[in-house]
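Quick illustration, no need to memorize.
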Amino acid sequence: MSIDHVEPDATPATLDAVAPAPAAKAEAQAATLPSAEATTVTCAAPPRAERGDHWYRRTVLRVDVLAIAIALGATLVVRFTISGELRHLDIAVAGFLVMMAGLWLASLAVVGAYDTRRIGVGTEEYKRVAGATAIAFGLVATASFLASADMSRIFVAVAMPVGLVLLLLGRRSCRAVLHRMRAQGQHLAPTLVIGADGQRARLTHALDSSPVAGFRVVAHMALPPETGDARDAWFAAVSRTIDEQRIEAVAVAQRSELDPHFIRELAWRLEDPQVDLLVDPGIADIAGPRLSIRPAADIALVHLDEPQLTGPKRAIKRSMDIVGAGVALILLTPVLIVLSLLVRCTSRGPVIFTQTRIGQHGEPFRLFKFRTMVADAQEHQAEVWSMSDEANKAKADPRVTRVGRPMRRWSLDELPQFVNVLNGSMSIVGPRPIQAVEADTLQAWQGRRHLTKPGLTGLWQISGRADTSWDDRMRLDLEYVENWSPSLDFIIALKTIRVVLSGVGAY
């Protein structure tokens, strides 16, 4: 991914482009399922006692125990190496280690880090792991201060960062294995979808098209009659379907005229077989942390919070940008010098290429990067734009220099943008800045991507980079703005390292 070559073609997206599923494809898929109480079996489901999510929870617990043991053991070695008593391990130290491990695991359990609804997908799992670690060590630090215990202080200072990194890496490894197995059709919860035809088709397609979420639709049913014996017969059919198909999850498609008592009655009937009940609120591309239940009289409303782009979190983001960019520029100084010499010695023109881009709130700013093209590249921009039907970035752009091509592949040309981060025009993570000609084509709702500062990397970069279409790029940018959080920035930054090293989608 580079900047001096032009960005993807500014083809205006539509609201349909960011919908969770194409209606025609969803209707066609739903047509393969029965329309009433009949069910379709795709493969044998495991016994309820051996649900896939229970297996995964036990696996994650074992990995957490191993990570905590390694962290505490390594910290023990460091402590006694410093004190010169490496071979000395008395009962007090052993007791403290057991207590620390137990408190850590208990904190993970209390905050819901083993909740099968949250592990294996999304960012909430990582947030809870970090929160539980902070709680556990906060308690130990408090006890250490009150008791004036040196041993506790050392463990807090060393074991916490080491353990947190190991826990997150362990969770990430477990998730990679789980996602690979789910992509192969394993450990998917047999799911019953309930709703009207259109909503049912949409929800069925959404669940089946994302196997990493852990669902496999094996049956669907229409909504029940409002009253009478037919309603009782419908619930009996639901129970029969659950037993026969070994259903582990029931998903109800959103509908404005849905009977408010239906969900409550269905929940009561699902308590005994311990089947998960999921209700689709009909809100697309909104993350869980922004959704909460707000009771009002006899109804439960889904409360949608505004994107958290201001206040303390924004101050935290800016602080992280300053520290991260400052450290990066200091550590990368030798690399920056070498790259500058390579650009200067291999082609005519300035070392640093600058271009006006659109920043936060639509304000223009000057973006910096190493020049990777010939000096008159801007004069041939229109010609290159016509070389690709899907994106502005031609894979064989003739304007790229011999040194510029590997620099673009490994994103080395982007390093000067840490200066943009320091001066406040950019952030380390955010939507990539676009040119003014592209900004002029945005629809009003797409302009929300400018609510936050543009970034060196973002969801687009870890989702295909130049191989991503314009519509998908807009969708990813809006998804980032709607669901922004410091933890999301951290995850994107970590994934960017892997994407950059692979060189995928960089031309």
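Residues 343 and 351 are 6 Å apart (CA to CA).
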